[in-house]
Amino acid sequence: MTRLEQRWGQRGATLTPPRCVWAAFSCKAGEFLDMKAQACKPCAEGTYSLGTGIRFDEWDEVPHGFANVATNLEVDDGFGDAVENCTASTWVPLGDYVASNTDECTATLMYAVNLKQSGTVSFEYIYPDSSIVFEFFVQNDQCQPMVEESRWMRTTEKGWEFHSVELSHGNNVLYWRTTAFSVWSKVPKPVLVRNIGITGVAYTSECFPCKPGTYAPTAGSSACQLCPADTFSSKGATACQPCEPAAYAEPGSASCKARPPCTDKDYFYTHTACNARGETQLMFKWAEPKICSEELPQAAKLPPSGVKTRCPPCNPGFAKSNGSACQPCPYGSYSNGCISCPAGTEPVLGLEYKWWNVLPPNMETTVLSGINFEYKGMAGWEVAGDYIYTAAGASDNDFMILTLVVPGFSPPSPVLEDAESKEVARITFVFETVCSVSCELYFMVGINSRTNTPVETWTGPKGKQSYTYVVEKNATMSFTWAFQRTPYHEAPLATPDCHLLPPQLRSLCYNNCSFSLALPGQILHYDFSALAASMAFASGPSFTAKGLKYFHHFNISLCGHQGRKMASCTDNVTDVRLPAGEGDPARVVRSHVCQAILVPPDVMGYKTAVSSQPVSLADRIVGVTAGSALDGITSPPEHFPPGHPDLPDIVFFYR
């Protein structure tokens, strides 16, 4: 208890106030302030407290005290489509987390708190798609922003990430703000936020009951524990109750569900490692966690395991030594059986996986939940002799992930910096997708353990086909395949607004996956080798369905600098202070011609423009000619204005 004294005059008179004053009083985590006893006491079983903090971990509805608003920051100036109403484009509570909007409205989640002492705000988030601008920032009671460097959130790669910001004594207003700019690409995946915690409040006078699916077994708990699988709990539970044998529950469940009958989709097959006799066994296993029942009528049974077959041969470049496992061939030998290279030659290094009896040591597989984006610790792909396939998952929303890591490459000849082709290696794979409902296969590439960038996506059932990706950087590369049966809803692709380009540049737009560029006739007066490295221009303005203004920004490198790819387009959504063409190579696209979506500063109120969704439009120059066709590419004449009779158009052909 605090005792206040004030001395009056020279005689030292003492004034004792009629009541006590609590200033910056605090209780420990797991305790609450008992107002009658004026002392901190432990929380009862089934409840918890943060002591000097509050936590928001239930999102069945937006918690009391939060403001959830959506606005359109672009005004209707009469040039674009009518500005649409944004009142419905707010953050959406979805049980354990809250999800952002995915359209061009600006959705803001706000919370105001008065701190009696310095504290922190922390939360977990998933930010998978840079087509959305995601900010978190804090303002004080004078509406001045604080911790500006923490404003721009970084995209996430591996599930939930933790973010924490220090708060000052006094009033703090917290803002979570999103705006999507999905102009002609797919509908972006939303930002997810959960477990918002704030510390620095004076005290809490009550403890909070554990939410359904959690429990606190002892008094003085600072957090509730998750109920394990096949158990459940109600609000304020001190223990979890087991499900009946005919029911199941996922971890953190508030109730149990009836087990469905097992089907052939609930088990998978795999092969054991080869034994000393060169035999492998076919094994059938239930997908874990097993939620189906074999006892119900028409339920499928697990087929018998143990059928022995001969092991497939080793992959090229491998051979069996003393043991049954395949080992890499020693240096100087190659192919099946490790044949020595002839004198004066050396082996061409590479990896070729034709046989899948065991997962190679430089590959790994896992399952990422498509619901809470947490890893499940189970295999998503299984080997099957001459192929590898996605195993049965517990949920159709799960991502079945397979990753191959290559520590570097040894090209047959050095790659020159000014060479037209920068190829140092290539990866080719054969695949097919079989699905009765919507499904997607993603192929992603990462450089030096940095962000995995999707380079190709296949939607729906696809027949057996081959795909090749050219590697242009000698670095540690990761190649990832992710398969999902029921992805997010996606809008159809739309092409850029080609008609908004200057007439002599319209043929830069999509033309059967190839592009041509028409420039004014006076280009003939220039020496090509001395031509400027690149030029940039923007079409527009264009307007989204919600009325937000944006531009298609093009950057072009012609045939100067010995054909080097000098044009660059940047994704700076997560760091708008990044100058164009600089920063993390995983977020910069370099090619002869590239395109990005550019949102001007006046739209969002930022200090600089936001550039997102960069794509390469021209990876390789085919040739430059005055003709309208070259190597199977035709330049449509309607895209060009009438030419000068003595100065023909020069057409640049790219792939």
UniProtKB/TrEMBL annotation:
InterPro entries: Elapor1-like_3rd, Elapor1/2, Elapor1/2_GBD, Elapor1/2_MRH, Elapor1/2_TNFR-like, Growth_fac_rcpt_cys_sf, MRH_dom, Tyr-kin_ephrin_A/B_rcpt-like. It holds the Pfam family TNFR_ELAPOR1_6th. It comes from the Eukaryota. One of its GO terms (cellular component) is plasma membrane. GO terms for biological process: autophagosome assembly; positive regulation of vacuole organization. Residues 511-655 form the MRH domain. Keywords: Disulfide bond, Signal. SMART domains: Ephrin_rec_like. This is Endosome-lysosome associated apoptosis and autophagy regulator 1. It comes from Falco tinnunculus (Common kestrel).
